[in-house]
Write a sequence for this structure.
């Protein structure tokens, strides 16, 4: 199919679209045919400003020549190499570069192909580590309501989004959930909300009291929940979680698939909050979404724990055909160059106050019941209109019609522009969002 042609209705039929109302979509499709910088274009040539960096992933903007060149050169040199009991130089180089970038002793990288794989890998590494250090009874996980950790069985088990869970049976056994962190008293907070951080984190003590720490392997949270409408953690929350995990020998996993690589104005949320997890999952911005890639970074004690068997024994019975795929490694390395050369994490920090003022200027528009922001992202809750999600979907469609891409989650709209966005383009995003909100009143 040529990208310049709109496919006929019949052509749309074969693709079972993910997370999509397929029949509704195919009656009135929203197609994207081209992308450059902070814009998409539809097949008819209509320009859409990318308010969401694709799906929170194109942090350095679209169509970066440097990344294209790196992928093309790698393809020319070697298309593929396995990573089981052999390797290729770019994988080791990339891991060393990531180790240097990451905070603390998060110095070891496992690679996979998506955020979902990263989460399932992290959960398995946590179990393997606990067993390797003689704590094999620690098999339980603690996730959080309204968390999103991808769509693997591990991820939906620790995740807390009902529609992602209810269709899929029993999932992983032995999972508890902390309460979510979205409190009404924190409505319209700028940045980290004031209230409730310690009490919400202390819920972990309740779960430990119920099962005993000797049965709990790990706690996994998004430092700032993304997919359920962007929920920055209340002040003190993550530090307190860290303290409780330390007290009980429980591993803390940060799912930084969205927050990693500059979204919060630091390389990683761990730095922004001054809290070092034992494991960290990443994806999306790791390769600027050019070649699918995910990763798990682990701290020294976790890595050393896995290395405690005999030297000729396989340390981790887990991996993917495409772990450290050469094209993904080439892309990820070129992306690191861009982040460094253009100081994009710093740029994200510098733009955040402007962004914050912009999104909070929407307060007072019809049906706006909450606005949240942290770093270069925001969530805006609209009052429901009939069934939950109706107004949110209308807003998503209307914004697209008006030339802006946003994310919808229920009646919340979330935005997370590429970190290369300009102030005038932020103004445009805010203007279209305001017109959208008025149009769906
Ligand atoms: C925090 C978080 N974890 C995991 C995932 C899953 O990533 P993927 O869609 O690449 O599997 C996402 C995707 O949005 C995410 O936001």
């Amino acid at each position: 199919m040529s990208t310049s042609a709109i496919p006929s209705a019949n052509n749309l039929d074969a693709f079972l679209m993910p997370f999509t109302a397929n029949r509704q979509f195919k009656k009135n499709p929203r197609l994207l045919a081209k992308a450059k910088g902070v814009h998409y274009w539809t097949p008819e040539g209509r320009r859409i400003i990318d308010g969401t960096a694709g799906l929170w992933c194109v942090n350095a903007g679209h169509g970066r020549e440097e990344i294209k060149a790196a992928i093309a050169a790698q393809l020319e040199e070697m298309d593929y190499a396995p990573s089981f009991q052999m390797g290729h130089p770019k994988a080791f180089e990339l891991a060393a570069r990531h180790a240097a970038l990451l905070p603390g002793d998060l110095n070891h990288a496992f690679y996979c192909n998506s955020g979902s794989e990263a989460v399932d890998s992290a959960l398995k590494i946590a179990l393997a580590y606990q067993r390797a250090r003689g704590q094999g009874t620690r098999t339980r996980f603690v996730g959080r309501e309204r968390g999103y950790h991808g769509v693997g069985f591990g991820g939906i088990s620790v995740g807390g989004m009902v529609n992602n869970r209810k269709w899929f049976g029993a999932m992983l056994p032995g999972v508890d959930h902390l309460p979510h962190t979205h409190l009404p008293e924190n409505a319209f907070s700028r940045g980290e909300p004031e209230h409730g951080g310690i009490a919400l984190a202390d819920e972990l003590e309740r779960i430990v009291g119920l099962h005993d720490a000797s049965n709990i392997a790990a706690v996994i949270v998004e430092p700032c929940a993304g997919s359920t409408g962007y929920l920055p953690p209340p002040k003190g929350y993550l530090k307190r979680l860290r303290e409780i995990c330390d007290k009980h020998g429980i591993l803390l996993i940060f799912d930084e698939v969205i927050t990693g690589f500059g979204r919060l104005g630091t390389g990683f949320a761990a730095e922004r909050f001054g809290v070092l997890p034992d494991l960290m999952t990443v994806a999306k911005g790791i390769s600027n979404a050019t070649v699918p890639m995910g990763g798990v970074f682990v701290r020294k004690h976790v890595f050393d724990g896995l290395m405690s068997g005999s030297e000729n024994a396989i340390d981790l019975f887990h991996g993917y055909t495409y772990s450290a795929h050469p094209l993904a490694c080439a892309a990820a390395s070129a992306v690191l160059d861009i982040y460094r050369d253009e100081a994009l994490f710093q740029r994200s920090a510098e733009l955040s106050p402007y962004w914050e003022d912009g999104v909070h200027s929407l307060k007072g528009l019809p049906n706006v019941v909450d606005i949240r922001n942290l770093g270069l992202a925001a969530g805006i809750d609209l009052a429901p209109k009939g069934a939950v999600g109706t107004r949110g979907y209308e807003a998503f469609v209307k914004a697209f019609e008006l030339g802006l891409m946003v994310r919808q989650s229920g009646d919340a709209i979330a935005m997370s522009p590429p970190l290369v966005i300009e102030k005038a383009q932020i103004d445009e995003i805010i203007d279209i969002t305001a017109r959208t909100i008025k149009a769906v009143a």
In short: The longest strand covers residues 216-221. The CA atoms of residues 141 and 175 lie 5 Å apart. The chain has two domains: 32-60+343-439, 66-341. Residues 114-116, 119, 148-150, 222, 226-227, 255, 257-258, 283 surround pyridoxal-5'-phosphate (CB under 6 Å).
